[in-house]
């Protein structure tokens, strides 16, 4: 269902030649103890390292979006953004509703032009996993 919906949206923006900014979260959910446990199970099942600071990305949606935007000639770059909270980390929307806002937020942004991205689906998946390895190391150093 998601794929069909995304196809329609992406194709629409490609057809009308309208620039598109799309936020995609390959990890798929908030970082909680429960989601971390699920991520570690995924890592074990797939022979991947367990992470402390990030969840493993699920690359199917990411590769689909990149491929579809490329086909429609509507992809300029992928911006990889890592977010760090040095004081309090809001775990869920509930924290924000209760006024537990972060006192400070740090962003690391890296722009990857479309020409710097791998072409094959397998290489693009590996590329995404490598970005998450970098995020893990970056956040480990930060904290």
TrEMBL record:
It comes from the Eukaryota. It comes from Mustela putorius furo. Pfam families: Acyltransf_C. The keyword Iron does not apply. This is Lysocardiolipin acyltransferase 1. One of its GO terms (cellular component) is endoplasmic reticulum. The keyword Iron does not apply. GO terms for biological process: phosphatidylinositol acyl-chain remodeling; phospholipid biosynthetic process.
């Amino acid at each position: 269902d998601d794929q069909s919906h995304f196809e329609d949206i992406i194709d629409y923006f490609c057809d009308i030649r309208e620039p598109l900014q799309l936020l995609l979260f390959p990890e798929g959910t908030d970082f909680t103890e429960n989601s971390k446990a699920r991520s570690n199970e995924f890592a074990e099942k797939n022979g991947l390292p367990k992470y402390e600071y990030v969840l493993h990305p699920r690359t199917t949606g990411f590769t689909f979006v990149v491929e579809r935007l490329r086909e429609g000639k509507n992809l300029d770059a992928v911006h990889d953004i890592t977010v760090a909270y040095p004081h309090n980390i809001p775990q869920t929307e509930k924290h924000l509703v209760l006024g537990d806002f972060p006192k400070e937020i740090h962003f690391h942004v890296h722009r990857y032009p479309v020409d710097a991205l791998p072409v094959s689906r397998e290489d693009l998946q590996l590329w995404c996993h490598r970005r998450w390895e970098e995020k893990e190391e970056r956040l480990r150093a930060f904290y």
